[in-house]
Amino acid sequence: MVFGKKEIVGLDIGSSAIKLAELKEGRNGYQLKNIGETLLPPEAIVNKVIINSGAVVDTISTLVKDLGVKTKDVAISISGHSVIIKKVSIPQMSEKELREAIPWELEQNIPHSIDNVNYDFQILPGESQEGNMDVLIVAAKKDVTEDYIAVANEAGLNPVVVDVDVFALENMFEINYPLTDEVLALINIGASVTNINILKGGVSIFARDITAGGRQFTEWIQKEFNIGYDEAEKMKYSLGLTGISKDLDRITRDFADLICGEIERTIDFFTTTTSQKETVRKIVLGGGSSKVPYIKEQLVERIGASVEIVNPFKNIIHDPRDFDPEYILDIAPKMGVVIGLALRRKGDK
């Protein structure tokens, strides 16, 4: 553990809510200093694209003020259509040679000009059957990234790290869970995007965003019962707490089918395209819609893997006098990305 790097605030700008987390690093590990979220107005962010920047700025400002946050440096992240993550297999070369080759690889593998994206890469451990090296390339559209930076700036904050949701999840997982050689999938079902990051030996070997999430479920409820967005959200979050009607149960099953079907297809694609035909043995599931009935059970049945609900506070010290244990337990599944961001430090790659 390295001390001395200035702590920053994790700021997860989601499609339905803004989440914020602040951690303090000490000799005994990380301690929770601040955690909270505020809902965004409907349609402020659609499919991870900022539509109403004023509403987003106001929501961030309100959350920062309500939590009494003094730190201005933040880590933010992006996901969805604006982010492209590709694994490529190329001849063995030095990192310097690879850095020079990456722009050409990007031209072959992304639908945008490299002038319009920010990009980075990571060499994956091991080698492919042909003796090549596997490299994970990440590209994010500059215009979308700049929009996210702009709303944080307008709220009086200073983004010093711009991450990608799937890798923020990996960062959170690394701190909270033991390193194993098994192949496992970190899955985060958000409002408009479901993030999937498959790890082997603690290293990402496949990552993808699915543009489906809990907002579709809310819209289905609105349409079925002819009610407003807020009422539909309340109905959604009451699932499991009270008995539900046949119509709501049907919609819930349909939503679980949709999400689990997309996840199954993504994992099947991963399995068939990896040289070692890797099989996912475990799923660590999170996100605001991870608690929707039938999802966990369907994933066990479809994937044939064990499924565990994520706890991003597992190894984060949190004083029960400051944070109600029941509240922490309730919010835990949807705080994976923001905790991963709060673990970042200025200058991180």
Question: Tags for this entry?
Answer:
alpha/beta, single chain, 16 strands, Nucleotidyltransferase, domain 5, about 350 residues, six-stranded mixed beta sheet, globular
**Mean pLDDT, as a whole number?**
91
| Strand-pairing-aware structural class | alpha/beta
Distance between the termini: 16 Å
Low-confidence stretches: none
| CATH hierarchy class name | Alpha Beta
CATH topology: Nucleotidyltransferase, domain 5
Q: Evaluate the radius of gyration.
A: 20 Å
Helix content: 25-40%
The figure for the number of domains is 1
Which sequence of strands runs across the widest sheet? 10-6-1-2-3-16
Overall, the morphology is globular
Query: What is the N-to-C order of secondary-structure elements (H for helix, E for strand)?
Result: EEEEEHEEHEEHEHEEEHHHEHEEHH
Q: Can you summarize the main beta sheet?
A: 6 strands, mixed
Number of helices: 10
CATH architecture: 2-Layer Sandwich
Quick one: CATH superfamily? ATPase, nucleotide binding domain
Task: Report on this structure.
With about 350 residues, the protein is an alpha/beta fold. It has one domain: ATPase, nucleotide binding domain (Nucleotidyltransferase, domain 5). It is about 35% helix and about 30% strand. The chain has ten helices and 16 strands. The strands form four sheets. It has a six-stranded mixed sheet, sandwiched between helices. Strands 13-12-11-14-15 form a five-stranded mixed sheet, with helices on both faces. A three-stranded antiparallel sheet has the order 7-9-8. The chain is globular and about 55 Å long. The two termini are about 15 Å apart. The model has no long low-confidence stretch (mean pLDDT about 90).
